[in-house]
Amino acid sequence: MNHESATGRDDARVVRRRIFAMAAMFLFCWCVAGSLGAEELTLEQVARLRDLAKQLGHPQFAEREAAQRELREFGEAARETLQRAAEDPDRERSMRAKVLLGQLLPMTHVIVDANEQLIPHAKVVLLSGDPSDPQRGSPRFCTSQGEFGLKDEEAELSPLLEVSHPDYGVARIQQTLPEWVHGPEGRQERKLFPGRKVYRVPLLSKSSPQHDRCVRGRLLDAEAKPVPGAIVQCRNVRTSGAGLISGSDPLGQAVSDASGEFCFYLPDRYLPGGKQRGLVIPPQSFYELEIDPVRRDCFPLQGSYRNGQLNEIQLPAARERHTFRFELREGQPLTAAQLTNISVTFLGNGDTRAALSSSDLLNGRRLAYGKYVAQYYDNGKRIEFVPLQVNAESDEVLTFKRQAPLTFFGQVVDGATGEPAPRAFVFTWSSTSYNNLAALSEEDWRLLEQVESQAKPEGEVMTMLRRHYGVLSLVRADEQGRFEIVDPDRNAYGVMAVSRDTLPIARRVYSIEVKADRGDVGQLPLFPAAYAEVELKHDTKRGNLSASAEWRFEEGEQPAWLDEMRTLMDKPSHEICYVHWLKLNERAPVYVPAGAHLKLRFRSPYHDEWTPAVSEAVQLPQGQSRTLKPLEFEPSVTVIAKVVGPDGQPIEGVPLRRKHAMDGGWSVAHNTDANGEAKFYIHRKQPGHVAVKDLHQPQLSSRNGDAPARKPLDDPNLQAAFPASEQDLTEPLEIKLNAKQLAMFRE
Q: Which CATH code for domain 109-182+190-314?
């Protein structure tokens, strides 16, 4: 035999074998990847599965065990690979593959993002459940359809899951979505994933067009180093113009990665903003975040952070450890059981803050330096403690002491004459209920007039008044109308004066100057009152309404004191207490100024799809009553307003407000959708305007002090008029921003 020819044939056979092996390998990878979905596994994962299947027959026991453990973690994604390995002639490899196939769980659950779109190939780790379960803490991988399995005993424990994906981020979730949802059309059955329970996480893919509407952040510690593993939660978002978006439970939590970065999109699929915005959270919106660093050397933080940018958030350093002591009475600390009624809040820089947990209050914790405020809640009462400033010199035990009682003093006068109003009633209150003192009966007044100087805290008088207000204390003014009333817990919202056949008047506590624990209320004028008996008819099958009355004064001669009363009504510090919620389809009395020529306008401020109803004209002497004709609401009509930029392109997220000619103020903001449009209900036969009054997040009242108010915009090009109409307006109202205004909106 020719040696060279034999060698050539051997080389050819080697080449053929290599080609065949490469083709087989390609076919294997193609089959695995194709059978599991082109997007199911990366080439690296396919290759890893092949290697692991091969190692099931490794000569060394430890290698076989390690391969079996890792294949188990792939879960359903490894099924096709294991089925092929189960047919392998190697008995050890075949046996182990069959065992693993028998251990694969049926697909019971699915992972979706904040928009309820499937997340393929997510890694799922059980962080809670049965501690004896060997699978607890080990990862599982979802299929290309976002599916994975939980054993019945695992699902019954409602385990906390950590879900991660390189294109989405990291999140935690414990509750599945309900099978029924309440959407725009009422109660609806969820039919997206039949036969599967759904875990929704507050994440979106980086490739999603909505990703820039997420809030993104980088968490840093006091030394500007990343904080990984922190828990980030959000319940509300404020849009530009301060519109409120509330998430739909269960919300889930985001988790910061190794670089301290996180991403969060508020799930609100079944609360889609309706008439106040588009289906997507608008740009220039602010997420209210609660951040738990988990680490002991960092302190929690809550604050408002804008979407569309990377927010760098530096967490305060957690310094020395402190425990807490709370004294409602000198030397008498609260018990451990009472600590559940305590709220302690850290006030940080700007509007940042942090609420301490019940465990913190019971066991103590390391604290950040700064101001801490505390309240005690008991049966609807709130008791304030003296704030504490924590620094390096603070005692280890922080003692919160109850604030000293606050005494209000002033004088009740006759609003028509300016003379003292003798023996008027004055009370403090902290909440409202029916809040219609016009409904007090003759028997109620006789009971009230039995009070000589001060009502018993839990007596009949207080019980009767608490049908209307959360009354804290009540006194009777002297013959000169002078009074002093004590607010022992500093819990009062306002101070109110009332007497028979007069309009109740209140002054809000925030406007009262306090010196040395005494607040000067000033004069409280009582103006003459009459009563109108009204009834609002409405078919509750068309939806329940919250309706109240407003006075609309007519032209012509009016009482001499009316201008003074109207001036007082315009002050935010004072209130003539006649506006209250009326029960539908029931007759009820409402206050009207005696002798004034007016009509009553009834509106439903939270349901502007209904046009206000206006009563007949009323003019009554003091103390008299008149029954008015029943009234019904008519449906409103609609108008579309559109905002475009200098180039005529639609601008999303711009806050628009509506004002009717006969209304005193602007509506809440409606943010334009992706088409630059916002829909408004407008009242029948009433003209008005739609306008841009602010192009950025307005300054809300700060928890650390009132923020300065921004001046509303009044540029002529930022408003458009709508005519009085009895039908929907078909032509959109267009508002065109100039370059400067557009830059202001996007700043």
A: 2.60.40.1120
